[in-house]
Amino acid sequence: MQQDNDPKHSSKSTAERGNLNQSELVNQGFSDAPVKDQRSFGEVKGQNSCSIPCDITVKLLRDEKHSICGNLQQSLLAFGRSTRKLMRDVMEEQQRALDILSSQVTELMTKVQTLSSEVQRSNTEMYSMKPVQSHGRDCSDIKDNLMSVVPKIPSGIYIVHPENTDSSFEVFCEMDYMGGGWTVMQRRTDGLTDFKRSWADYVDGFGHLAGEHWLGLKKVFHIVNQKDTRFQLHIALVSHDDVTSYASYDDFRLDSDTQFFSIHLGRYAGSAGDAFRGYDQEQNQDTAPFSASDVDNDGCNPFCSIGNCTVESCSIHYNHTGWWFNQCGLANLNGSPEDAERNQGQRMHILWDTWRHSGVPYTIKSVTMKIRRIATNN
C-alpha cells in the first residue's frame, strides 16, 4: 500500500485519531462512572433548564393576582357606594311615608275627638230633653204589660223604674223560669265575680247583670217596697254533681238603710230546707240586718262560736263577704272561697247548710236569688 506523505493529510489523520482517542476515553470514563452520578447529572441538568420558565410563570401569576385583587377591590368599593346610596334612598322614602302616616293619624285623631265631643254633646242633650223610657216598675210589671202584645217575652236586661223613686236602673229579668216575671237580685255561676266587697258595694251593686252579680240592696229595697205590692223570694241551688233544689219564701221585704236593710221572710217552701231560720233561734237569720267587713251587724258580741272556732266577725270569717248574719247562721249565698294560702282544708263558699245528702251538706256550685210580685188581697 502506498503511504500518504501529504502533511495536511497526515495532520488531519493525527487529529482525528486524537479526537477518537479522546472520545473513547470520555465514553470509557462515563461507562466506568457509577449510575448514581449519571442520575445526579441528569437532574441538575433538568433543573437548570426549568429555572427560567418557572420564574417567568410565577411572575405572570403574581401580576395576574394583583390585577384580579385590584379589580375586586374596585368592584367592592363601587358596590359599597351603591348600597349606601340605596339604603339612604330607602330610608328617605320610609321617612317620607312615616311623615305622611303621622299627619294622617293626627288628622284622624282630631276627627275622632271632634266626633266624640259631638256624640257626648248629643247624648247630653238627648238625656236632658228626653229621659230614658223604662220598661216597667219591675220584671213582673214588664211581663204583665208585654203579655198582650208579645207572644213570647225573652229573658234579658230591662230598665225598671220602681214607684216613689227618682231614677231608673237596669235589671236582669228571667222570663222563662216558672212562668217568668222574676227580677234577679243575685246570681253566681262561674266564680269570675269577686264577692269580697265592702258595704258600699253591697248597697250599690256590682258584677255583670247577664252573668254573676249582686243587684244592690238599695235597688232591691226600692223594688220590694212599692205601694200595694208583695214579693216572693225564690232561691235556686245547683250542686257540683248537678243536683237541683230550691227554697222559697212567700213574702220578702227589706228595711231601709237606716235599719241596715234588715231582711223579713214569709213562709218557707221548698226542698233545700229553711237555712235562713236554721234549727234553733240562735241560728235564725230572719229579721237580721245586713253586715259587711266594714259594717258589723252580725250579733257576735264580743264573739261567736262556730264549731270549735271563735269568730269575732262573720263577714271576715266568710272571707269578707256581705250577708244577713245572725251569729253567722247556716246560710250565706255570697260566701267566697278562702285565699289559697289560708285554711286550705276548709275553703268556704256558697253555704246553705240545711240542704244535705246522707247528713252531709251539698257542695253548691251555683245559685240564683230572684223576686217576683205575688197577688195581694188589696
UniProtKB/TrEMBL annotation:
Disulfide bond recorded as keyword: yes
GO MF entry, a single one: protein-macromolecule adaptor activity
Swiss-Prot/TrEMBL GO biological process terms: blood coagulation, common pathway; fibrinolysis; platelet aggregation; positive regulation of heterotypic cell-cell adhesion
Subcellular localization(s) per the UniProt record: Secreted
SUPFAM superfamilies for the chain: Fibrinogen C-terminal domain-like
PROSITE patterns per UniProt: FIBRINOGEN_C_1, FIBRINOGEN_C_2
Main location: secreted
Keyword annotations from UniProtKB, A to Z: Disulfide bond, Glycoprotein, Secreted
Fibrinogen C-terminal domain boundaries: 130-375
Region (Disordered): 1-26
Keyword check for NADP: no
GO CC list: fibrinogen complex
A Pfam family recorded for this sequence: Fibrinogen_C
InterPro entries: FIB_ANG-like, Fibrinogen-like_C, Fibrinogen_a/b/g_C_1, Fibrinogen_a/b/g_C_dom, Fibrinogen_CS
Protein name: Angiopoietin like 5
